[in-house]
Amino acid sequence: MRQVELLYFDDCPNWRDADELLGRLAGEVEFELTRRLVTAAEEAEALGFRGSPSILVDGVDPFAAGDEPVGLSCRIYQTPHGPAGSPTLDQLRAVLTCGA
User: Fold this and answer.
1) Dist CA 61 CA 81 (whole Å)
2) I need a surface site. Which of 23, 48, 59, 63 has the fewest CB within 10 A?
3) In the chain, where are the structural domains located?
4) What does the radius of gyration of the chain's CA atoms come to, in whole angstroms?
5) Any residues with CB less than 8 A from the CB of 96 and at least 6 apart, and which?
6) What is the 3 state secondary structure string of the chain?
7) Which residue in 81, 90, 85, 77 sits closest to 28, CA to CA?
8) Rounded CA separation 28/58 (Å)
9) How far is CA 41 from the centre of its chain?
10) In whole numbers, what is the pLDDT of the chain averaged over residues?
C-alpha cells in the first residue's frame, strides 16, 4: 500500500484543497494518508519542504523538479490549466497509480 504524506503549514490555504482531492481519491486508489504540520523554518529546511502543500508518495515528492526553494511558503504547481496552488485530481491520480 502506498504511503502518502501531506506536508503543510497553517497559513497556506492551498493544503486544504490538496487534502480534499486526496480524500476524493481515497475511494478509488488504496493508500494511507498522514498529514504533517510544518511549523518552523528549521523544520522546513530539515525536511526539504518545498512549500505548502507538499505531497510525498512513498517518501518521494513526485512533483519536485529539484530547483524549488525550501521554506515556509505556498507552493505553486504546474497543471494543464496553468499554475495552481495544488496538483489537479488527475495529476494526483497519476502519481498514486504509477507503478501500482
Assistant:
1) 21
2) 59
3) 2-97
4) 13
5) 2, 4, 25, 29, 31, 57
6) CEEEEEEECCCCCHHHHHHHHHHHHCCCCCEEEEEEECCCHHHHHHHCCCCECEEEECCECCCCCCCCCCCCCECCEEECCEEECCCCHHHHHHHHHCCC
7) 90
8) 18
9) 18
10) 94
What b/e sequence results for 5-37 when a residue is b if at least 16 CB atoms lie within 10 Å of its CB, and e otherwise? bbbbbeebebbeebbebbeebeeebebeeeeee
Distance, CA of 8 to CA of 15 (rounded, Å): 6
pLDDT tens sequence across 40-67: 999 999 999 999 999 999 999 999 988 8
8 A C-beta contact, residue 13 and residue 35: no
CATH number of 2-97: 3.40.30
User: 62 preceded by cis ω (within 30°)?
Assistant: no
Number of neighbouring beta carbons within 10 Å of residue 62: 15
Bridge partner list, 32? 3
Instruction: For residue 26, give the C-alpha cell.
Output: 481515497
